[in-house]
Amino acid sequence: MDEIITLDYGSGGKKTSRLIEGMIVPSLSNPMLNELGDGAILPGGEKLVFSTDSFVVNPMFFPGGDIGKLSVCGTVNDIAVCGGVPKFLSCAFIIEEGLPVSQLERVIASIAKCCEKAGVQVVTGDTKVVEKGRGDGIYINTAGIGVLKYPALTPRAIRPGDVVIVSGTVGDHGAAVMLARNGMLQGDISSDCAPLNTLCEAVLSTGAGVRVLRDPTRGGVATTLNEFVEGSGVGIELDEDAIPVRDTVRAACDMLGLDPMYCANEGKVLCVVDADDAETVLSAMRKTDVGVDAAVVGTVTERYPARVVMHTALGGSRILQKLTGAQLPRIC
Amino acid sequence: MPSANERASMLLRAIRALNVGEVRLMEVCGTHTMAIAKNGIRTLLPDNVKLLSGPGCPVCVTPGEVIDRVLELSMQRNVIITTYGDMMRVPGSTPGDSLQRRRALGADVRIVYSPVDAVKTAKENPGREVVFLGVGFETTAPGTAAAVLTAEGEGVKNFSLWSMLKTVEPALRALIAAEGFNVQGFLCPGHVGTIIGEKGFEFLPREYGLPAVIGGFEAEDILLSVYMLLKQIADGTPTIKNEYTRAVSENGNPLALKMIERCFEPRRDIWRGLGEIDGSGLVLREELSAFDAEKRFELPTVTTVKPTACRCGDVITGRIYPRECPLFGRRCTPEDPVGPCMVSSEGACAAAYKYRELTED
Q: Distance between CA atoms of A146 and A127, rounded to whole angstroms?
């Protein structure tokens, strides 16, 4: 049977890794790409951070956001977690014939509003229109450039004894989009979609011993934590009780057969930090509007090398793997 | 009131205090499978108490040759297949061939959360044939019946049901009768219990002398159910006990049972791992056969079941743990599953893989 691309390849889980690390990176290899960070650090007099992301979320409007807001946050956040100060974006639209202009206007207004909040400008762009049936309303690609302010954030800096902090509740975006897609009751579940550059700046400007920051989008917290320790001599032990999950999100996930730990987030940061600085980072996060629910959720140890282990509320333990297969298609 | 953790510790102390020797208990519900794995319950129980996953995942017990026929049907130009998400990646007899792959190749396959949504899809696409894949046990049968009756009532002629529905009792009887059966008690499915009631499981202690507890799905429910099973074993008084009293009554849900009765009749059906079992499947009654997809579409019976080393059958009959299958985690993973137990999120192998327990390293 010929290998074909299925939705699993876009899930952010193991097949996505296979696509990127098995097909793309070997052909396009260079030191900046090979880091596989959320963005690339470019050499030169003033070091720049460069990142890009495409957005195909369905539905294009959902509680707490829309594809426009998402397309700004996604790229801004990728730059911010690399230690960069995001400055300039490009924005390219692929629009399907038949899209009501009013909807496009809403999306553009949302982009403008989010750019203002994040302090970035769209300075170049492109539009293409494809035949009816060849797209899904609208797809957006953004790329962004920022100035590197806090260098050397990398999973390789993680040490035993460090603690893991999440900046707020887990799984909100994935649950909100899934419910919106199925036209189900939404209650008070809305996407956490938000620019995180203010929060990252607040954390990094404290001078705390931050090893790495990352925003756990596709594949969720479980997948990002696995990326932190893959191939290393350390592991992460999580305390299930400490992980903030909204009751409504937990209930929705139970109903849909999902796990919040694998649901996408679009306004959260995972941070590994020197244990001595944990309180500093927590209080810096909690002072920002998107970090009030920040919590220490785990520690880095040598007990389970390259593994993420969850200690359950009851006292049991299990290994938390990367997402396998598609948890849900097209969430970002 | 003690906290959840304290209550769990109390239950575990009580479980350890019972002197029962080596005991193998089986759950027969995918939701239990997942809850046990997710909460790490096996790592909490003493070594002498083993929890096995039985044929509780409806997707997992659907045989490959039925999937092959569904894949065949999905390629017919006028057909829209509607299904629960779990069916998307179940392979037919060729590993890797699935509805997901067929969709990528152009088949119109849509995930629905309710069979009634499939009827809605039929109404929205009057020129197309909409087939709903009815998978599940007594829990999903009433909703499936409701969809068929809705289609009948509203004259939605382009809707049909492919019934893969199954019932629990005949399967449990076959399992118990099978060679090598070695289970001392059943954790009975709370969801099925809401429909068939305590009565539906009475045959286990009465006819086979096997303790049975209908359990809920929270970690505490499961621990309490395990305790209740072990207590019966320790006391030598097998009976049917209901731990899930907040949802399950003695007689179940008469309205739901009536719906099933009105639409379906039992038929001999094939279970992966158990083989053919009399009266274990549900087929639409003669008067509703116009809505029966298997009768509406002429499909070749595919009999090309290729032998693989997949031991899903041994897993769901409790003969082996998932990790004892030679393919587990190597050739067979959730992204490239060989057997259905690895596909369905409620399958024993998928649960064991996703929530791998530390004891298994």
A: 23
Between chains, do B356 and A319 touch, taking CB under 8 Å as contact?
yes
Residue contact B37–A318, C-beta within 8 A: yes
A8 and B335 within 8 Å at the Cβ level: the answer is yes
Contacts of B127 (CB under 8 A, 6+ apart): B78, B158
- CA B23 – CA A122 distance, rounded (Å): 66
Measure the CA–CA gap between A58 and A135, rounded to whole angstroms. Answer: 11
d(CA B200, CA B153): 31
Among chain A residues, the shortest Cα distance to B336 is held by A325
CB contact under 8 A, A318 and B41: no
- The mean pLDDT of A244-271, rounded to a whole number, is 92
What DSSP string runs through A26-49? HHH--HHHHT--SSEEEPSSS-EE
Query: How far away is chain A from the Cα of B335, in angstroms, using its nearest Cα?
Result: 5
Alpha carbon distance B311, B328 (integer Å): 9
Length of chain A: 332
Asked if residue B10 lies in contact with residue B2, where contact means CB atoms within 8 angstroms, the answer is yes
Strand-pairing partners, residue A140, are: A55, A93
CA distance A279 to A287: 12
Tokens 């100060």, residue? A85
Tens of pLDDT, residue by residue over B306-347, are 667 888 888 888 888 899 999 998 888 887 788 878 877 778
Within B236-299, where are the H helices? 254-263, 293-296
- Segment B166-207, tens digit of pLDDT: 999 999 999 999 888 999 999 999 999 999 999 999 999 999
Q: Are B239 and B206 in contact (CB under 8 A)?
A: no
With CA atoms as reference, report the closest residue to A51 among A149, A147, A144. Answer: A144
Does residue B128 contact residue B80 with C-beta atoms inside 8 Å?
A: yes
Torsion angle, alpha carbons of A129, A130, A136, A138, to 10: -10
Reduced to 3 states (helix: H, G, I; strand: E, B; else coil), residue B340 is helix
B344 three-state secondary structure: coil
CA distance B106 to B229: 50
Identify the burial level of A67 via C-beta atoms within 10 angstroms of its C-beta, where 0-12 means exposed, 13-18 middle and 19 or more buried: buried
Q: Does B176 touch chain A (CB under 8 A)?
A: no
The amino acid present at A294, given as its one-letter code, is A
Model's pTM, two decimal places?
0.83
How close, in Å, is residue B287 to chain A by CA atoms?
Answer: 33
